[in-house]
Specification:
Blueprint lengths: L5 E5 L4 H12 L3 E8 L6 H12 L4 E6 L22 H5 L10 H16 L3 E3 L15 H14 L1 H5 L5 E3 L7 H10 L24 H13 L11
Parallel strand pairs: 1-2, 1-4, 2-3, 4-5
Helix pairs in contact: 1-7, 7-8
């Protein structure tokens, strides 16, 4: 019996990372799901991430606690209002205040450490260079640079055993294409959570950048949006 290759999959419980996990599972990887309690505004995404890990039979779902509120500087980790009802051109015009400084670098570093311990050579992350809301750590040049660094910084890379890969299967897809891909893989998007600023009951606000991109994605994909939004 051929042993499955292991993969660390970064999971926020959102639409993109869930689709990525579905892709990794379809490709036959043994899934190790990694999420973070980093001081974000709410814990609904972690509840969703747990459901996603169970749905895709992850061997383990690890939640690491780090406190980025001590650094602040983001509407997701500080007492800064989340922008609402922005146009697509506004989202693409600069780095938004919902950007968490160095978040993907921090998350990938933990994923890299876990991959070393597991003997895994693949890390999956749901970054996207099209509908990415202006985040600098979602760009292809960033991922390429991080992968190069990872292979310089790890035992396996230095010993030349096998090259570690940062896998970004959604990098060049529009949100609607991501949704269509996920539907084709049987993803149940009702278990995911994307909103930056949900109600106390976990209802999506429908007005933050993430909600807007999600709503437009489902509409363009011609797929029913199962998200529960706050009444307006």
């Amino acid at each position: 019996m051929i042993e499955k290759q292991k993969a660390v999959v970064l999971s926020s419980g959102g639409l993109d990372s869930t689709t990525v996990m579905a892709i990794a599972a379809k490709e036959g990887y043994e899934i190790f799901s990694l999420s973070f309690h980093y001081g974000q505004r709410h814990s609904f995404e972690l509840v969703a991430a747990k459901k996603v890990a169970i749905a895709f039979n992850a061997v383990k779902h690890l939640v690491i606690k780090i406190d980025l509120t001590t650094i602040g500087g983001s509407a997701l980790t500080d007492t800064i209002a989340v922008p609402k009802n922005r146009e697509k051109n506004q989202m693409a015009s600069g780095i938004p205040i919902t950007y968490v400084p160095a978040r993907n670098t921090i998350f990938l570093s933990y994923a890299l450490a876990w991959a070393e311990v597991l003997g895994a050579f693949d890390i999956f992350i749901g970054v996207n260079a099209i509908d990415y809301s202006g985040y600098p750590d979602c760009r292809p040049e960033y991922i390429q640079a991080y992968e190069k660094m990872a292979n310089l910084a790890t035992r396996a890379g230095v010993e030349g055993k096998k090259r570690l890969r940062i896998q970004t299967p959604l990098l060049n897809l529009k949100k609607s294409q991501i949704i269509q891909k996920g539907i084709g893989l049987g993803v149940q998007y009702e278990m995911t959570h994307s909103c930056y600023d949900p109600s106390e009951q976990g209802l999506a606000c429908g007005e933050c950048d993430s909600c807007i991109l999600r709503k437009e994605g489902f509409l363009e994909a011609g797929v029913h949006d199962p998200t529960h939004y706050m009444p307006r």
